[in-house]
Amino acid sequence: MKQNNLLNQSGKVLQRALVEQKRVAQLVIQKDLELSKINEQLDRQVDQLEVFQEMANKIRKISSTKNALSTIVRVMVLDLHFSAAIVLLGDSVFKVGSKYSYKKIDEEELVNHNLLDHIIRQDSAYVVKDLKKAQSEDLDLGQLLSLTSFCVIPLKTRKNFFGLFICGIEDPYQKLSKIDLEFLSIVSSFIAYTLESLEAEERQRHIDQMKSEFIFVASHQLRTPLSVIRWTLKMCLDGDLGKMTQIQRKFLKKTYQSNQQMIDLINDLLDVSRIEEGKFEYNFIKLDVSRLLINLIKQFNVFIDKKKLKVKTNFTSNSGIIIQGDESRISLVFNNLIDNAIKFTPSKGRIDIKILKEKNWIKMVVQDNGIGIREEDQKKLFTKFFRADEAKRMQTEGTGLGLFIIKNIIKAHYGRVTVKSKIGEGSVFTCWFPRI
Predict the structure, then answer these.
(1) How far is the C-alpha of 207 from the C-alpha of 221, rounded, in Å?
(2) What is the dihedral of CA 377, 378, 384, 386, to 10 degrees?
(3) How far apart are CA 47 and CA 16, in angstroms?
(4) Which of 77, 71, 44 has the alpha carbon at shortest distance from 167?
(5) Residue 400 to residues 257, 272, 382, 410: CA-CA distances in angstroms?
(6) Which part of the chain has CATH 3.30.450.40?
(7) Whole-angstrom distance, CA of residue 408 vs CA of residue 272
(8) Cβ(208)–Cβ(63) under 8 Å?
(9) Which of 6, 165, 183, 352 is 20 to 30 Å from 144 by CA-CA measure?
């Protein structure tokens, strides 16, 4: 009897142990599944963030709204494995800005769908997690999009509303997770701020284009009458229209010089317009830059002698240093640089003009011991219309266009230009051209 009782008790203990073991095993399996799910979600989150970072880097290099949106929707489907991604632009009347989907979507029916107005009024993400449990309007939109789980998010910044972002999956066994919805919210903000940035850039480009066109037309219109005035003044100064008193000649000479400055300004404005429109033409030949510089320096001899400047070179007209370049454009570059060096170097100062060979480059250097340029001004020096304060004080005339033109000419020759300068010690301008 005792033996039977012992057996019964042992059996109950064993049964309880088996039940407990089974419960522990189920708990372990459950936790393992939960951990597996968490790992899967974390992997998904890491993938999303890595792809997003890569996408953001690409978008920063794109200046077209159309190309930016196209890149985003393609990445969402091809790299992040959503079934469809669509950007609708507008506020109440929509158009498809860009879309990428594995299924065909009726765009006209989509942009006119009644639910879109409701989503705008709601002013927050509209989520349909499971189409099987959806209401009639949600079901209708889901079927139109061929998505079983999707969200529609307003594209807005603090200042602007741009439209809607739609993204989702087509899989009856899956739905958008919390992680997916958080990620899609980040993407929608990124799209909105990208649109705002590109819109501002496009508006600025349009304004710049209009300004360039105006300057080009106005300059053309002004150049003809100014040229007529110049030739008339020249005839007067040459005595072709009769004798003049000394006072008359003095005033006419000043007028002639002012007229010439206006023509130079207009020529600079025309050059800038042509550069910006890509119409600044070049005729590349094998160019002897040593001979070109010797001839240019000779043209400045009157001004060099007047200021008693010492000009030193490390080449002669027979040095035979050749680059591939446009003679008139390279002449314009060094005409400007030498002219600036003479203007901003005090009397009895020094100017060094050198040509140096360095590996794959020919370096052409114009160095002076003049007024110099502040460090903060050097960064703006090659931009349009910029003139350093020291230059303005010493030379009131000037357009601030010369160095902008120089930089663009050298760039067209596959070279570069640099400046080193200190206030009161002078400046060094170095132009780099490829060796041939």
Answers:
(1) 21
(2) 30
(3) 46
(4) 77
(5) 19, 11, 9, 17
(6) 57-199
(7) 9
(8) no
(9) 183
Under CATH, to which class is 204-276 assigned?
A: mainly alpha
HSE at residue 83, side-chain half, CA atoms within 13 A, is 19
CA 378 to chain centre: 21
Beta bridge partners of 365: 354, 430
For 285-434, CATH gives 3.30.565.10
- Average confidence score pLDDT of the chain: 84
Task: Convert the pLDDT of each residue in 221-273 to its tens digit.
Answer: 677 777 778 888 888 888 888 888 888 888 888 888 888 878 777 877 778 77
> Alpha-carbon distance 266 to 268, whole Å?
5
Q: pLDDT for 55-81, tens place per residue?
A: 888 888 888 889 999 999 999 999 988
| pTM over the 0.85 mark | no
Nearest to 388 by CA among 333, 329, 340: 340
Residue 47 pLDDT > 80:
no
Eight-state DSSP code of residue 132: G
- Least Cα distance to 156 among 200, 182, 188 occurs for 188
- Beta strand extents in 95-181 (DSSP E only): 95-101, 126-128, 149-156, 161-169
Instruction: Report the distance separating Cα 360 and Cα 435, nearest Å.
Output: 5
d(CA 404, CA 381): 8
**Adjacent-strand bridge partners of 353:** 313, 366
Question: Residue 39's pLDDT is what?
Answer: 56
Pairing of strands 149-156, 161-169: antiparallel
